[in-house]
Amino acid sequence: xxxxxxxxxxxxxxxxxxxxxxxxxxxxxxxxxxxxxxxxxxxxxxxxxxxxxxxxxxxxxxxxxxxxxxxxxxxxxxxxxxxxxxxxxxxxxxxxxxxxxxxxxxxxxxxxxxxxxxxxxxxxxxxxxxxxxxxxxxxxxxxxxxxxxxxxxxxxxxxxxxxxxxxxxxxxxxxxxxxxxxxxxxxxxxxxxxxxxxxxxxxxxxxxxxxxxxxxxxxxxxxxxxxxxxxxxxxxxxxxxxxxxxxxxxxxxxxxxxxxxxxxxxxxxxxxxxxxxxxxxxxxxxxxxxxxxxxxxxxxxxxxxxxxxxxxxxxxxxxxxxxxxxxxxxxxxxxxxxxxxxxxxxxxxxxxxxxxxxxxxxxxxxxxxxxxxx
Length: 374
What we know:
Layout: H1 3-11, H2 22-34, E1 38-43, E2 50-56, E3 64-69, E4 88-90, E5 93-95, H3 99-111, H4 113-118, E6 125-130, H5 140-150, E7 156-159, E8 170-171, E9 173-182, E10 186-187, H6 197-215, E11 230-238, E12 244-245, E13 248-257, H7 268-274, E14 283-292, E15 295-296, H8 302-311, H9 325-330, E16 335-337, E17 352-354, H10 355-373
Parallel strand pairs: 3-6, 3-7, 7-16
Antiparallel strand pairs: 1-2, 2-6, 4-5, 5-17, 8-15, 9-13, 9-14, 10-12, 11-13
């Protein structure tokens, strides 16, 4: 099967983040098994979704991982010109949810399987398929934890997020959390008999604003835009009517950190303010939604030099969005981003990838295979 034909199959699975992924996992597993590839399905703690890990070549030798996520963001927004879960080809563009983020890369991985299997690799190439990346990289940590039993320690991991086939050496880390405050409802004419949850939340919101302002003053890492860590309030919900004391208020917070800073620590001041509220009679629930570390690969790292050789393009220093790459690096595996498509097309109606971008990615994978047979 060619990459476009495989992409058509993959787009047809509405593998939306946070939902069961048995259909797409089953199809990929069956495809790999039909080509005689050793594959392990790694079921996550949710019970209804899995990662997949496959090896082509001698697993006892150090090799390289090609890694991508099977999930996509929802496609319920207005503006789609056609069914987002049905691939549409027009003037060299291939439209559909996930075409660029990042089922295009998965299609190239799978299309390369017959050639990789016939290449008599001296070093293995591993294919890693993860779930729920779009919810903060929730699936891949379970797979990374199992790698020591699945293969020799890898020489590197190539994360195929859309980068225009220019390798990327660094990205920011991220942490997100949801805070729920519960007070006591009542008529607004008697505020003395209630506990206003929205009023309580304002203390945490003020802290968030102050922390965001403080972070903008540095420390700085000028490869990023902006060159500092950031924090924001992403959602805020509360109240029923203007004459009812709001019993509940909920907010979600996100922090993005430059290298060498644990993004979760940026939310610590907010949590401290929230956890003081029970002394005033409120109930507080702080729930961590996601967290992944920054990626920072040295310019002279062997993996960076290899990707420049494979693509013919010097790697880009950094981007501000995040990927699974930082989790591989935290596990002691050098990681870099390189994949087909453009991140600017992701997460919007009429997402598309260009057919020639798939060909360029396929050329990179074939060059990696030659490197592993040398």
